[in-house]
User: Which sequence fits this backbone?
């Protein structure tokens, strides 16, 4: 047993090196050793992401989507399946629906093993092998949710192909359908996904970005205007002791659920303006500060300690991904810096996953 654990750690270390250097072998999912190690380590993280984003879809999706008798989900680049299975089961646990989940991957070895995972809970599994983004045997169908996780990071040279693919995918989404794209939370992967998002919004009239950007962003992503900026989620999460021990052995820090994601809708009402904290909230001598974005502009907001009072104290409690009501004079046009006045209240609007704060920005009881 100890020797097997050492082998898995070694495989995870090699996978990690290949992912970070973008040298991952195209057939790594066909190798049983790599597939087992991936599922044991990255699979648990993928499952946590699927559960979190499934809950978010329940909050943000149109009510009509969940009144259907059967939801049809297409997952592209399924790998070992933990992400899409967790997404589907999260929806099943909260909705009186059945789910047809169709998985697509270039590795038939991985797909065959996923297809054997049947639990009689209203989840029906099917699959097709395809080399993305060029091969598209699934486009003849209609889908309610289309998801893809971590494919851009493994196919950096195919950005234009994925933009074309998802332009076609949107055409086969149901009227209330959703498109969910997820990538790792590193600068390179994040900027690649944000760039793909801009391409989709430009190519596809009527496509709406539901999350995480506030205000139904349609303009180019503000983060991409500066080569040093990028945007990702950093949410609380609990992982198993086994995963944490493996992470420590390979030099990873697994203290939160980190990812970059974009959730699109075919049609959705425009969202009210909001400012989203897209950095950690920093505390320095004499002030608090963070970087905020409203989907059109990215700027730094500061609250001087001397201006912290009853109206503004919630600024110091903000966490990455939360949104607040913007001031009337946002955004700062010239300096990119805004000092929050002591007489202007901070109103917290939404948690990172879209759950609203109670009126006045209080935490829900």
Assistant:
């Amino acid at each position: 047993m100890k020797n097997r654990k050492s082998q898995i750690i070694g495989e995870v270390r090699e996978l990690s090196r290949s992912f970070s250097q973008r040298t991952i072998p195209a057939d790594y999912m066909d190798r049983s050793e790599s597939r087992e190690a991936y599922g044991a380590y990255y699979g648990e993280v993928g499952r946590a992401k699927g559960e979190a984003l499934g809950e978010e879809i329940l909050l943000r999706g149109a009510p009509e989507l969940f009144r259907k008798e059967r939801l049809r989900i297409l997952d592209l680049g399924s790998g070992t399946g933990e992400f899409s299975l967790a997404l589907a089961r999260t929806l099943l646990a909260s909705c009186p629906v059945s789910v047809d989940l169709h998985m697509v991957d270039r590795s038939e070895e991985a797909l065959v093993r996923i297809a054997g995972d049947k639990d009689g809970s209203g989840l029906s599994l099917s699959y097709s092998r395809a080399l993305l983004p060029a091969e598209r045997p699934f486009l003849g169908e209609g889908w309610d949710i289309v998801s893809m996780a971590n494919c851009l990071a493994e196919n950096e040279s195919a950005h234009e192909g994925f933009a074309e693919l998802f332009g076609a995918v949107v055409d086969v989404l149901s009227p209330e359908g959703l498109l969910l794209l997820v990538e790792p939370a590193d600068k390179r992967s994040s900027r690649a996904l944000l760039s793909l998002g801009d391409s989709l919004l430009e190519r596809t009239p009527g496509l709406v970005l539901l999350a995480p950007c506030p205000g139904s962003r349609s303009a180019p992503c503000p983060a991409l205007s500066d080569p040093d900026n990028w945007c990702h989620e950093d949410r609380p999460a609990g992982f198993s002791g086994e995963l944490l021990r493996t992470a420590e052995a390979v030099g990873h820090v697994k203290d939160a659920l980190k990812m970059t994601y974009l959730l699109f809708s075919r049609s959705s009402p425009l969202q009210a303006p909001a400012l989203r904290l897209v950095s950690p909230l920093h505390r320095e001598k004499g002030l608090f500060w963070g970087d905020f974005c409203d989907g059109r502009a990215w700027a730094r907001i500061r609250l001087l300690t001397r201006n912290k009072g009853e109206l503004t104290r919630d600024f110091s409690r903000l966490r990455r991904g939360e949104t607040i009501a913007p001031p009337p004079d946002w955004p700062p046009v010239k300096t990119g810096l805004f000092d929050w006045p002591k007489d202007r209240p901070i109103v917290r609007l939404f948690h990172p996953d879209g759950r609203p704060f109670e009126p006045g920005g209080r935490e829900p009881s």
In short: The longest helix spans residues 32-60. The chain is about 30% helix and 25% strand. The CA atoms of residues 307 and 341 lie 7 Å apart. The chain has two domains: 2-265, 275-350.
